[in-house]
């Protein structure tokens, strides 16, 4: 693996949340034995909101890396004892947040961190950062390539809830090598080889295999029908490739007619997806 000395320049930008609620409105674990919230799912929801906002702004979505999410979790816990971009230490030495990232695994060039405390929901925390120009700039930075997030609740701490985001940009040669599947680069940084470790939290990189394969799993089934229904109801977002795959009748629009044709195909009532619209309509009328 490439040593840290091969990358000598570090440019660190840090931003921190300043608006915090002093009292939490919910407690993850109660004396009655209620379960802890799913922190990983909450972090994932936060990253989805970030990618959706970036998509609305015409920016590329960010991938995430399991190792970075683990590092964010460390930072969220540390923030409960020291709410700062400096990490807790046993002496007077200043240890900045970026030291939580192992350069031998992720060769980053730029790193940003957002911190927030006090809010107990994903939406409230996102809105808190959205209303802060510095935090919003970090989330909307067009040069960033990967992100991570974490949340934790620490009873009897100053703010209770602690949220952390990191955004990183790799060195250009490394990023280009990864995108081009350069085996020498991937051998140096094998974390980018495992699709289970580097993934898209918002599904904005989904590539449908065929017409009707809206969720990109290589099959056309009831899950695609449900996803399309949720999209039309405004409960899901689809990327450009997914919208094209969802246009079953190929008329340039995604409507309830596409849902019905897709459902008929899944149920075996029409033999193929791109059936002549007139034939499909007659089949639908014949069912009534």
Binned, the helix content reads 25-40%
Question: What is the general shape?
Answer: elongated
The secondary structure category is alpha/beta
How many β-strands, per DSSP? Answer: 8
| Mean pLDDT over the residues | 80
Counting DSSP H or I runs of 4 or more residues, the number of helices is 10
Tell me the radius of gyration: 23 Å
How does this model look, in words?
- It is a single chain.
- The longest helix is centred in the N-terminal third of the chain and has 18 residues, at 39-56.
- The strands form two sheets. The chain has a six-stranded mixed sheet, with helices on both faces.
- The chain has helices at 39-56, 66-79, 122-130, 133-139, 172-179, 183-188, 222-232, 240-246, 256-266, 277-287, and strands at residues 11-12, 63-65, 86-87, 95-96, 108-117, 146-153, 161-170, 198-199.
- It is elongated and about 80 Å long.
- The protein is 35% helix and 14% strand.
- The chain starts with 10 loop residues before the first strand and ends with a helix.
Give keywords.
about 290 residues, alpha/beta, 6-stranded mixed β-sheet, two-stranded antiparallel ribbon, 10 helices, elongated, disordered N terminus
In short:
By secondary structure, the protein is α/β, with parallel strands linked by helices. It has helices spanning 39-56, 66-79, 122-130, 133-139, 172-179, 183-188, 222-232, 240-246, 256-266, 277-287; strands at residues 11-12, 63-65, 86-87, 95-96, 108-117, 146-153, 161-170, 198-199.
